[in-house]
Amino acid sequence: MASAPTEPPAKDAPLHVAIVMDGNGRWAKRRGLPRKLGHPKGVEAIRRVVEAAPDLGVRWLTLYAFSTENWGRPAGEVAEVMRLLKHYVNSDLEKLTREGVKVRILGRREGLPPDVAEIVERAETRTAHNDKFFLQVAFNYGGRADIVDAARALVAEALAGKIDVNAITDAAFEARLSTGGLPSPDLVVRTSGEQRLSNFLLWESAYSEFVFPDVLWPDFTPDHLQSAIDEFHRRERRYGAVADDVLAAG
Ligand code: FPP
Q1: Distance between Cα 99 and ligand 1 center (Å)
Q2: What is the Cα–Cα distance from 4 to 170, expressed in whole angstroms?
Q3: Considering its fold, how many domains does the chain have in total?
Q4: pLDDT tens column, 172-192
């Protein structure tokens, strides 16, 4: 992951887009359905977006599917999200593998039910050698937990004499996050009109652009993604520096 501040990427550089898929529960409620029935519709939106993303200039797509805080939801809803992850991998893994997608699950493995941990492992192993498109699913993920885990790893290495304290740099820290090796997200999208990060990619989004489309996740289409990317391209990324025209004006 590139350490910021840095030079803005070229205009046509492939993008890393990260999405907080919000609004499944409201989508269902508005239809008089139980909240959990919004999540299968959310999986349909995931399929549409994964399919369309490479043609929209996206090479890395990171989806926030289940946070470390989501365990506090009703047991039936948690079970439904677990079931859907397994169902998605079971039904789509071969297609993703054929299409050159490398799947990676971000977040803590411990705490996942054994059958979910097993399927996550299978998805990663099966697609490990792919490199056309990178799909990260944040599952049992929390930005703070991830930072704590990276800190613990560094402390353990320092105590074991494997790393010098002075060698603990931004890059060394990033490498130990569950996103280690990925570029930072260029664009973070949160659907449903809410404008919060909710513990998603806290370190990684330091220089991301944010777009908040007013659409519930189950209704999200490739056109919404295209609009968010168009908005991203209208932004001027400065990475803590000042704009060229400001510099020229002194
Ligand atoms: C947010 O909507 C959505 C979630 C917390 C779950 C997202 C999970 C999936 C779409 C299924 C996971 C499966 C795969 C394949 C990764 P919300 O329930 O918070 O909606 P609300 O804000 O309207 O209540």
Answers
A1: 25
A2: 9
A3: 1
A4: 999 999 999 999 999 999 999
